[in-house]
């Protein structure tokens, strides 16, 4: 009996020399280009600032998406801030539940790696689909803007 439920078994893999080319092939759908930086831009930023941790979002052996996070202790002293700075699902894989599954996995990872830490992210104006999904996971706008003028959302644990 098919109940129409798809169970996605995703895992996160750090971006390394071994999988970098695969990550660089990921693209957002047409019309989404202004919502998130390219993987190339993210990897360049991570190369300049090792606080950023780029990861591939993988389904079995296929990389279906990309995320980048970082825990910024000094910049937000004394408590620090955990940022989910980037999250993208490849255009070919969108609409299949990967975004929600990836968000659930990322938050589960954060709860183990950074227990009790609030999670921050930012959303470009007009990216209503992403903002709606983040709200489903408990994120709320906090009235702040990030350094690029994007609206900041936070999921509170403390």
Notes on the structure:
This protein has helices spanning 20-24, 39-48, 98-113, 128-136; strands spanning 10-14, 53-59, 62-72, 81-89, 119-123, 140-145, 151-155. With 158 residues, the chain is an alpha+beta fold. A seven-stranded mixed β-sheet has the order 1-2-3-4-5-7-6. A hairpin with an 8-residue loop joins strand 3 and strand 4 (81-89). The chain is globular and about 40 Å long. It starts with 9 loop residues before the first strand and ends with a strand. Mean pLDDT is 89; it is low at 1-6.
Task: Give a short summary of the structure.
By secondary structure, the chain is of the alpha+beta class. Strand 6 and strand 7 form a beta hairpin.
